[in-house]
Design brief:
alpha/beta, Enolase-like, domain 1, Arc Repressor Mutant, subunit A, 3 domains, 39% helix
Length: 308
């Protein structure tokens, strides 16, 4: 699989560095920094939408790739993605969205243009939510990078984490970084919670999460929740999904979604202990939808859910 990358800013640079250093360097055939300064003529966004090919950067390299990754590209510049994907012969596009600035303007038009060209596109939000795909190229990439997956070996005598293996790393590398810090810790919720969230949010760390952390758009918090629950799964401890099921059961098998969310979610979950499952409402919404898809939970009407 040959990979082409469009990127901008520290987010794109960090992803490229980690993906390259994690065994994919020989698969990356083209890397291009797409910034406003590269657009000839000082075009306005509305001009770009009308005819992006007219304003294509003149230094865009010639390339041939299978999968195109779009990392950190902002706003109106996303309109160039379909044309670049066509020029590079891409058959699939992963357009990562880790803050509001990365949500492409005219997203529907971008999807339609790519679809008309027979090019598959996905917009993982955050990037580390990617866990699989119906597209073989995206699925092959997601086997190595996306929603974190770990294996953990627990010492039976000390009940400490003896070894952590990263099965699927986050694209930014926080999963690998956290795994190194987890080894030797007691296999208990408190120390693991603290380690996961602190390593994930640590701005001084080489592989810290660069997603947006606004309370109104808590993408970084959601990414941290995914990391924590992946570790809990590997260590055989109750995850947020388990707490959701328990919350419904404790309410007699049926509960209002809002009440269930209040029971499970807290911005201070890392300090409040295992009774709170996650720090972001986005994470709760994701997990509840997955439980419905797994057939474990169903709608009870009037904003309520029940165990199926």
């Amino acid at each position: 699989m040959k990979i082409g990358i469009l990127y901008a800013g520290p987010f794109g640079e960090q992803m490229i560095n980690h993906i390259s250093l994690s065994g994919f360097a020989d698969r990356i055939v083209a890397v291009y920094e797409l910034t406003p300064e590269k657009i000839p003529g000082g075009a306005r966004p509305e001009d770009l939408w009308e005819n992006p090919a007219e304003f294509m950067p003149v230094d865009l390299p010639q390339a041939s790739c299978d999968l195109l990754l779009v990392l950190g590209v902002q706003g109106a510049l996303g309109v160039f993605v379909p044309e670049i994907a066509r020029r590079w012969g891409a058959r699939a596009v992963v357009f990562a969205v880790d803050d509001r600035g990365m949500v492409p303007d005219a997203r529907r038009s971008i999807e339609e243009d790519l679809g008309a060209a027979g090019i598959h596109v996905e917009f993982p939000e955050p990037f580390c939510i990617l866990s699989g795909s119906g597209n073989e190229l995206v699925r092959a990439f997601a086997e190595r990078f996306g929603r974190p997956v770990f294996r953990a070996a627990i010492d039976p005598d000390s009940h400490r984490i003896a070894r952590v293996t990263v099965v699927r790393d986050t694209p930014c590398g926080t999963a690998s970084a956290a795994a190194a810090k987890l080894e030797g810790l007691p296999c208990e919720p408190g120390p693991i919670l603290k380690c996961c969230y602190e390593e994930h949010h640590n701005e001084e760390a080489e592989h810290c999460c660069l997603a947006e952390m606004d309370p109104l758009y808590p993408v970084m918090q959601e990414a941290g929740d995914l990391l924590k629950d992946a570790v809990f799964t590997a260590c055989g401890m109750p995850t947020t999904k388990d707490l959701i099921i328990r919350g419904i059961a404790a309410a007699g098998g049926e509960i209002a979604v809002d009440a269930l969310k209040e029971r499970v979610v807290s911005p201070q979950a890392r300090w409040e202990g295992p009774e709170k499952g996650c720090t972001a409402g986005r994470t709760f919404d994701l997990y509840l939808a997955e439980l419905v898809g797994e057939g474990k939970v169903e709608s009870a009407g009037k904003g309520k859910v029940r165990i199926r």
